[in-house]
Design a protein that fits this description.
By secondary structure, the protein is an all-alpha fold. Helix content is 79%, strand content 0%. Helix 3 runs parallel beside helix 5. The radius of gyration is 20 Å and the shape is globular.
């Protein structure tokens, strides 16, 4: 009987990782589609030159606004009604939003569709991470998180392949339809036992009130957001705007964003695998994150101070930037483990998505500084982001192997 129960438990834990990982696969597929088809889709709508760049930044900002709102409400749902409920709502919203992008014919409608996609995309990462961390034993969390995050970045590579061979409208339709099909696998998930234990307790659940009212929690919360900002800056500024940045470096050959993202995220997978292994090897989230944060600083300084002048060198250097994404895979787990079960879903959804939403001030700063040159604009933003990430790292305490069966008091 004991052997049978053990086999069943192992199977359930496997299902948790597999189902949530495929959800994050589609989430990241849909999330980065706009980055990849920004130029061809907006050109197809009749825009060009600076008007195309400005419209792209505006649409991206609407998506980030959706992420901000979606992150808060998804976390609230996850802490009040369960991690499964949050995952169901998120996949429905972002699938419909992405599907709608395949039928837009003007910029305002495009922006609205990306806003609704952002509402749903916000919940997948945090709710999935929270469920995996609460379901797996401490010595298996690192492996489960690594599989989950790597599957997301494989989703980005899959999107790049689709964009390479199919029209942009078809790519959006595939992404949206795949999400709706995956929705039916969510019935296989079992709710977190830690969350179930909260149902009968008189403790506040969800929302940001417990964080905002406590200086120590607020400090940890902001630190986690800033730590993950480098892994937002690289794809959203350096990779998305790579045609403009490459031209400013003196590269005359056309640079394709989907190839930059494909090379970059191929290396991201390598970096994430190493980060997951290193975190377990060192038995430390803090030490593993520091390794990749320092690596990011070194590669970024090379990117800015000694820019390459060949297309192949440009792609290679962006790949090196991708390897530094170990900050994201370890940092996401590190952030969730900092807080109690009653607000863990809120933290899990809002921290990475508030980090993603830093793209809004990044885009605004880039728009204001681009008259000085794309490379100068990106360098100013990057220096600020790396300084904030370093401060964030300093403010977080170690959580490796921590017992997560605790709640935050009001």
């Amino acid at each position: 009987m004991r052997d049978s129960s053990s086999t069943l438990a192992t199977r359930i834990l496997g299902i948790t990782v597999v189902v949530t990982s495929f959800g994050y696969f589609i989430d990241m597929f849909d999330f980065f589609l706009f980055n990849m088809v920004r130029i061809p889709s907006l050109a197809d709508l009749g825009l060009k030159d600076s008007a195309l760049t400005d419209a792209g930044l505006m649409i991206a900002n609407w998506q980030w606004a959706g992420l901000l709102l979606g992150a808060y409400f998804s976390g609230l749902v996850g802490d009040k009604f369960g991690r499964k409920a949050s995952l169901f709502i998120s996949i429905i919203l972002y699938s419909i939003g992405t599907l709608s992008c395949g039928f837009v014919h003007d910029v305002p409608t495009y922006a609205l569709a990306r806003f609704f996609a952002g509402l749903g995309l916000a919940g997948e990462l945090g709710a999935g991470l929270t469920l995996i961390i609460e379901k797996l034993a401490p010595d298996r969390r690192g492996f489960g998180i690594m599989v989950f995050i790597v599957m997301g970045f494989i989703g980005v590579l899959s999107a790049s392949a689709v964009v390479q061979f199919l029209p942009w409208r078809t790519a959006y339709i595939i992404g949206g339809a795949a999400g709706l099909m995956l929705l039916f696998t969510r019935v296989l998930l079992m709710e977190s036992g830690m969350f179930e234990q909260l149902r009968g307790l008189e403790v506040p659940r969800g929302g940001l009130r417990l964080i905002l009212r406590d200086p120590l929690r607020l400090k940890k919360y902001l630190a986690a957001i800033f730590l993950m900002a480098t892994s937002v800056f690289i794809p959203q500024i350096l990779w998305t705007l790579s045609p403009e940045l490459g031209k400013d470096m003196g590269i005359n050959e056309p640079i394709k964003v989907n190839i930059v993202l494909s090379v970059g995220f191929s290396c991201v997978i390598v970096g994430d695998l190493v980060a997951g292994w290193l975190s377990e090897r060192l038995k430390s989230r803090k030490k593993a994150t520091l390794v990749f944060l320092i690596a990011g600083m070194i590669v970024f300084n090379k990117y800015i101070i000694w820019p390459v002048h060949t297309l192949s060198g440009f792609y290679i250097e962006n790949g090196l930037l991708g390897i530094t994404f170990g900050v994201w895979v370890v940092g996401a787990a590190w952030a969730v483990e900092q807080f109690g079960t009653n607000i863990r879903a809120t933290v899990g959804t809002t921290v990475p998505n508030f980090a993603r939403a830093l793209t809004i001030p990044m885009n605004m700063s880039y728009a204001a500084l681009k008259r000085h040159g794309p490379l100068i604009a990106a360098s100013v933003i990057g220096v600020i982001i790396f300084v904030l990430a370093s401060l964030g790292w300093m403010c977080l305490s170690e959580t490796y192997g921590k017992n997560l069966e605790f709640s935050e008091s009001s």
